[in-house]
Amino acid sequence: MSKLDGFREKDFLEQVTILNEIAGSRDSSSLPGLLDLFEKPTGDTGVDYMVVNALNAVLGANEDAVIQGLASKNPAFRTLCIRTAGEYAFKDAAEPLADMSGQETDTDRLAEILAALAKIHPPDGAAVFRAFLGHEDPLLAALAMEMAGAYADPQAVVFLKAAVEATDAERTYEQCDITTWKAIDALAAMATPETIAFLAANVHHKNPTARRIITDALVRLGEPAIPHLEPLYGQGDVDQRILACNIVGFIGSRKGADGLVQGFDKGCFNEPNVRYAAFEALGRIGTLKGLVCLVDGLMETDELILMAVVTGLERHAAPGILKTISERIAAGDERSGRIAHAVIASRALRLFQELYKDEVVGAALLAALKKSQDAEILADFATRLDEIGTERAKADAQILPKARTATRKALAADDSKSMLALYRSILTDLGFEPLMAANGQEAYAFVEAGEFADVVITDMNMPVMDGMELVGKLRASLGYEDVPILMVTTESEGSQRDMASKAGVTAFLTKPFKPDALKAKLTEMLDG
C-alpha cells in the first residue's frame, strides 16, 4: 500500500506530513504517485509546491528514473528531470543532455540543459558549450564562455579574444555586456601565456567596466601576469604604464618589485603620473631594493609623488631608512619642509613616532602639524603624542591648534591612499569636512547612510566600483542630481571623457596637478 493512496481526500496537515516523510526517506516506490500529483496538481499552492520538493528528493535517489524522464512528453516533468540531473551531477545524464542541447529550440529550456551540463561537467563537454559561444541570447553565450574557461578549451580562445575586442571598438566601447565580462574571466581561467598576454595588452580597454574586470583578473593571476605587464613599462602608452604599475603593486610579489626598480633604472617612469604609480606600487610591496628606491624618491618635488613615497615608507621603513629620513628633515632646507608636510598629510603615524625621537626633527614635524586644519589628523597625532608619553610629547599635544568647524562636506573616492591624503589636506584647507572612500562602493555607502556632500571628487579607474559607475549611481540618487562632480584622472583619451560627461561628470582635472589647481577648480564649480 502506497503512502499516497487517497492523498487527495486527506486534510492539509496529513498531506504535509506524508510529503515530508517521502522527501526524507526518498522512497522510490512513491514515484508513480508523486508523478500523478505533479501532472494533476491538487490546486493548493502550498501542497503542490511540496509535491515538487518531494518528487525532486525521490528523483535525486533514482538516476535511472531521471534519465528516463529526460525523454518525457510532459515538458514540466522533463524540465524537472533536467534540473535534478544537474543538481545531483548524474554523469550518465550527460550524453542525453548533450543530445538535447543540439535539438532544443526553446531558449529557456536550452538554458536549463546547459546549466545542468555545467554542473555535471562531463570530460568531453567542451565541444557542446563551444557550439553556443556565438548564440544570440547573451546569457547562453555567457554560460558557454564561462565553461570554455572551465574546460580551458584552446579552440575557444579566438572567439573569446574577439568578444573582448568587439567592445573595444570605437562604436561599441560604451557598453560592457555580460559576454565581455565572461570572455575576460574565461581567458583568465585558462591562464596560458597566450591568454595572459592578451589580457595584459588590453589592460587599457576603452570600456571602464571591462578595464576593471581585466585588472581584477590579472591581479588574481598573480605572479604569472608580471612578465606580461613589465614590457608595458617601456612600450605602452601613459595609461598602459600606469595601469601596469598599479596591477603589479596589487599583486604584491617581490618579482614585481624587482621589475619596477629596473623600470626606474631604465628611465621608464619619467612621466609624473607613471612615476607616481610606480612609487605607489613599490610601497605596496616593500622589498629592500624597493625601499632604497623609495628613499631616493624623497628627493621628489611633486607633492603627490612625495606623498606616495612617504606612504610606502610608512608601511615598511626599517631603522636605517628611518635614519635617512630623519637626516633629510633635520637638514632644515626647503626639501625638509616638504617631507615633514608629507608625513603629516599622509597620516604616517608610525614614521612620526620614530622620527619624533629626534628633537630637531620632532620640532619640524610639529610645525607642519600646526598648519593642518583637519580635525581627524590633529586628533590622531595628539593621541599619538600622548601615547609617546614623554614630557615633551605631552606638552606638544597640548599646544596643537583646534581645527575650524567645517560648514560643508566633500566626498572623495580614490583607490590610492596617498591621493586620498592629498584630497583630505586640500579639502580641509577649503573648509570642507572630508568623506574619504577607497572605491566607488565605499563612496556610495556614505550616500546610502544619509550623508550629503556639497561636491564629489572621484577617480575614474578603481577596483570594486569604478568612477563611471559611481557617477551613474549618484545621479540617480535623491539630492545628487545636480551636485558638482569632479573627475580627477590620468586618462588621455577623449573617448573616456565623453563617456564620463554622459554619465554626469561636471568637470575634469588631469593628474598631475598642483593643490592650487584643485582648489581653483572646486571653487569654480561651486561658485558656478
Question: Would you spell out the secondary-structure blueprint of this structure?
Answer:
Elements lengths: L11 H14 L5 H9 L5 H16 L2 H7 L5 H13 L6 H10 L3 H14 L5 H5 L7 H13 L6 H10 L11 H13 L2 H9 L6 H14 L4 H4 L1 H5 L2 H14 L2 H12 L6 H14 L2 H9 L6 H14 L2 H12 L3 H12 L3 H7 L3 H12 L4 H14 L2 H8 L9 E6 L3 H13 L2 E6 L2 H9 L6 E5 L7 H9 L9 E5 L4 H10 L3 E4 L4 H13 L1
Helix pairs in contact: 1-3, 2-3, 4-5, 5-7, 6-7, 7-9, 9-11, 10-11, 11-13, 13-16, 16-18, 17-18, 18-19, 18-20, 20-22, 20-27, 21-22, 22-24, 25-26, 28-29
**Major sheet, described briefly?**
5 strands, parallel
Share of residues in strands = under 5%
How far from one another are the termini? 84 Å
What is the approximate shape?
A: elongated
Structural class per helix/strand content?
mainly alpha
Number of strands: 5
Percent of residues in helices comes to 55-70%
Radius of gyration: 31 Å
Strand order of the largest sheet: 2-1-3-4-5
Overview of this protein structure:
Helix 27 (417-429) links the parallel strand 1 and strand 2 (432-437). The longest helix is centred in the first third of the chain and has 16 residues, at 45-60. The chain is mainly alpha-helical. A five-stranded parallel beta sheet has the order 2-1-3-4-5, sandwiched between helices. The protein is elongated. The protein has helices spanning 12-25, 31-39, 45-60, 63-69, 75-87, 94-103, 107-120, 126-130, 138-150, 157-166, 178-190, 193-201, 208-221, 226-229, 231-235, 238-251, 254-265, 272-285, 288-296, 303-316, 319-330, 334-345, 349-355, 359-370, 375-388, 391-398, 417-429, 440-448, 467-475, 494-503, 515-527, and strands spanning 408-413, 432-437, 455-459, 485-489, 507-510.
